[in-house]
Amino acid sequence: MILIKYHYTMNVITRHTDYAIRAILYVAKAKGAVVSTTELQHELQLPRPFMRKIFQILKKEGILKSLKGNKGGFLLAQPPEKLLLVDIMRIFQGGFSLTECFLKKHICPNIKKCALRKRMKRIEGFVNKEFKKITIATLLKG
């Protein structure tokens, strides 16, 4: 008997979302003080191209405000209690879904009567409900 062992890790949060959350948390910890991009890059050790793109998106989406000039940088545009993890996920990855077909690039022909899909939908609903409870403020509390 031959056993083939597969190990597959599903990424619930993408790299862009992870970087965005880390950056938002760092800015939130500053409690209203302006945080420079140099400080963010030094403290978070994020690649500069990713950081620039992420901050532009967060500014455009109304999560962060930016100030220009010598004392420029970023600060939160909203209180941490109002910033939901699920909204940040939606910005960078379109949300959380378990019910996408597991077969790469092909729609499953069994999608209407798939027993696994029904269970996955239920799990997905539970996970999304839990994500909606998480704010930047709750993450700051640990």
Helices and strands in order:
Elements: H1 15-29, H2 37-44, H3 48-60, E1 64-67, E2 73-76, H4 85-93, H5 115-131, H6 136-141
Antiparallel strand pairs: 1-2
Helix pairs in contact: 1-4
Report what the structure shows:
The structure is a single chain. The protein is mainly α. It has a single domain, classed as Winged helix-like DNA-binding domain superfamily/Winged helix DNA-binding domain (Arc Repressor Mutant, subunit A, Orthogonal Bundle), CATH 1.10.10. It is 48% helix and 6% strand. α1 (15-29) crosses α4.
Q: How would the global form be characterised?
A: elongated
Total tally of structural domains: 1
Q: Which radius of gyration do the C-alpha atoms yield? A: 19 Å
State mean pLDDT (0 to 100 scale). Answer: 85
CATH-assigned homologous superfamily: Winged helix-like DNA-binding domain superfamily/Winged helix DNA-binding domain
Per DSSP E runs of 2 or more residues, the count of β-strands stands at 2
Largest sheet strand order:
1-2
| Coarse structural class | mainly alpha
Descriptive labels:
142 residues; 6 helices; 6% strand; 2 strands; Arc Repressor Mutant, subunit A; elongated; mainly alpha; 48% helix; two-stranded antiparallel ribbon
Entry summary:
Helices cover 48% and strands 6% of the residues. It has 142 residues and is mostly helical. The chain has a single domain (15-141), classed as Winged helix-like DNA-binding domain superfamily/Winged helix DNA-binding domain (Arc Repressor Mutant, subunit A).
